[in-house]
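INFO  loader      accepted 1 record
INFO  loader      residues=362
INFO  predictor   begin
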Amino acid sequence: MASRAHTHPEGVRPWRKRKKRTRQPNGASSIYLGADGKWHGRVTVGVRADGKPDRRHIERKTRPEVTEAVRELERQRKDGKVRKAGQQWTVKTWLEHWVQNIAKKYVSENSYDGYEVDVRVHLVPGLGAHKLERLEPEHLEEFYERMQKNGSAAGTAHHVHRTIRVALSEAVRRGHVTKNVAEIAKAPSLDEEEIEPYTIEEIQSLLLEASKLRNSARWVIALALGLRQGEALGLMWEDVYLDAGYIRIRKNRLRPRYEHGCGDKCGRKPGYCPDRRQIRREFKKTKSREATPDHRAPEPAHQAASQAHAGADARAEGGWGALGGQGIRLRAADRRTAHPEHGLPPLEATADGRRSTGRASA
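INFO  predictor   done
INFO  writer      dumping tokens
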């Protein structure tokens, strides 16, 4: 039986099975030539806050350039170092956000003051226009050099370097940038200055002048123990164990800061406003137990503290007195002696029923 020949009408092409088009799987990167003559790449790096895919766009002039950029972004995605989607930070906007909304809540008042000055006076005017993600170590090194040429000390430039290093570490932690360029940049070198102690004659002159002041004990003890100013001003009678002969440093007095209580109508600075209000706590504790040592008081310091304590007893009824000179109200009923066996104060009840550590209290 002869086979049937397949015939087609004239002008009609025979039917062919079309090859099925393949499609990139969901989330795969793509590279294509755009109508603008440039090469474009798309890389999915995660999910945005609204739940939609976070698909990043890359644009380059040639295919090899865009291919390399796509592969680099894929490597960052694999290592978890892709910049977080959202606001495009500049150095200015990030530093101002960081110092006001992040650092202010979690660092001490003194640390915040230093950060705020570095950001406002140095970093924002000098680097603020840079895109945060495009900041390079060379930008920082050139900036430090300009600072010193314009008259800033190396110590100031070094402090600024520490501030931006902390700020960029937080930006990395929150995913706004992938690396901290301040950890790569070279900080300005510092020359160590040898500390020259006071001579015997200078100390005698200081003590002579201090003896004319009501709080002369503050200067004697500071010189004898080498205390910082805040530590000396923060001393209370409860930190002094007269019978055992030692002093415990447990807190620092902070520099006061004020705000207007008049609604800024007096025309003066806040510190000179007649109705000024203190907006900073008066004391802060030392950072750790290791930083609160017990100092054995040398004889001059012990003698000065004893004399100051005796004078405070004389002023206890409605008077004021303090070892550090802050004007702390004294109550003779709170004064106790140290424990005779181990030099530490026992717990005793005061006249108003509170528990006391048995120290001379202010």
